[in-house]
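Same chain as my last thread, 92 residues:
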Amino acid sequence: MTDLAPIMEKTHEWASKYAKKKGFILNPDEEMLQMVIEGLSRNKHEHGKQYCPCRIISGDEEQDRKIICPCVYHEHEINDDGNCHCSLFFKV
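reply #2:
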């Protein structure tokens, strides 16, 4: 088992900057936020890409490109539901 802490730190930093740039906030539930950050970091470590942890990697590179965070669905989901499916980004 590898130590994901350094990857998680970078992922959290990236997510914070991205949220601020887009006018979103990160999940205010710290426990849930850490679970999503860990999932993103684990996917980055195991698959080389920051795939959304709430979506299934198919193995089809073209299809899977759509689920690299921030996925192609996140803005629509945030607009419609108030947060993305993974619950990483929320409307302000």
